[in-house]
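hey so u asked for the seq, here:
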Amino acid sequence: MLARSEARRRFPAVEEGIAAMFREYPTLCGITVKGDAEIVIECWPRESASPEFCEEIAQALVELVDGRPDAASWLFGRTFARTLH
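ran it, structure tokens below
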């Protein structure tokens, strides 16, 4: 498994794209990409992820890994969460 710093070197556009999704969608709390290509979207409590919102996130992920099968494989089984300070 790749360490986070190694992933940034190998997949900087993917890492930045995911970070951009959290900036663009303030209600987005987390994304889990399951091995069977299922994507789980978590939003703030009392907020629901509409089908359209889920489709936007899924499409953004597809665009991030388009033409990069190694990056797509790296996403499977991972969870990405908003960082709060």
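The mean pLDDT is 86. Residues 60 and 85 are 25 Å apart (CA to CA).
lmk if thats what u needed
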